[in-house]
Amino acid sequence: MIRSRRTAVRTRLRARTVVIAALVLAAVLVCAVLAGAGDLGWRRVLGELVAQVTGGQSPLSAREAAIVWQLRVPRVLLAGLVGAALAMSGATFQGVFRNPLADPYLLGAAAGAGMAATLVVVLTPHAGAWVPPAAFLGAIGGVGLSWLLGRTGGGRPGTGTLLLAGVAVGSFLSAVQTFVQQLRTETIRQVYTWMLGGLNVTGWHEVLVAAPYIGLAAVVLCLSGRLLDVLSLGDAEAASLGLHPARVRLLLLAAASLATAAAVSVSGLIGFVGIVVPHVVRLLAGGSYRVVLPLSLLGGAAFLIAADQVARTVMPGELPLGVVTAFAGAPFFVAVLRSSREKVS
After folding, report:
1. Partner of 93 for a Cys bridge, out of 30, 102, 230, 233, CB 3.0 to 4.6 A?
2. C-alpha span between 89 and 77 (Å, rounded)
3. Which CATH class is domain 25-344?
4. What are phi and psi of 186, to 5 degrees?
């Protein structure tokens, strides 16, 4: 009886934990808005924020206020959306495939987005506005191809078959991307700049485009924590509890892929967020997906906002965001890999 009570406590999302995570996210968000590449002074920016809330006099000029509200705030919010999407998707993929090293790009989303973005850059060099929608469609297409390839044997694909299909599709689409790049070698730098990831925001357009897709996926995934917990018991046990494992996996993979595609379309390829954040959440708050998924949403947003702040302020020229997350995530990935091997052995 005592053991069951402890288990129930570990799988329950405590209000105190959510409040702490939300306060951390709010603090990171405010700090990112206050400090930026433009030397406006954090006190003056804080005065602008207070003035907007209270209706008082702002210490900023109209141009400086535009920098805050049309550049900084949208970029910070977009970083939060992308980080939340990648972290939740990573946690979902790890649960569905029962693999602690699974990431949001596992089913060909990255390769599909990269190929589509490359096609746009090569075929229409001056139509940069078409890159995000093309990347979104490419990511969805890559996942769709993986699903279709996984079904070639008939019936619903299992997780192992789907995983192998994703690897095959990703390799094929990456080869197509490399071939297309060679058609116009002068575009290689532009393509790789996009692939390294970044948040080049010039207004609210990117936020408004990505938010509905990421929001819908986040609602579905946050409400599916119990389903993932049941799936972790095994298909036979899940079926005995009234669940249809194949249908649940399809729903979860579709929602996670939608969130990944939306994130990739506005940020390029940003690695390690989907691995680092869910594992940190598990270490701090427990392994139940009813806890991991909502806290990964908050933690992923805070992590990428902080990483983007480093990317745009640590050097006179802005660093690619993917480089910053790789510096932070690669050592953590090695630690997770080593831990997984020790558990297997």
Report:
1. 102
2. 18
3. mainly alpha
4. -70, -10
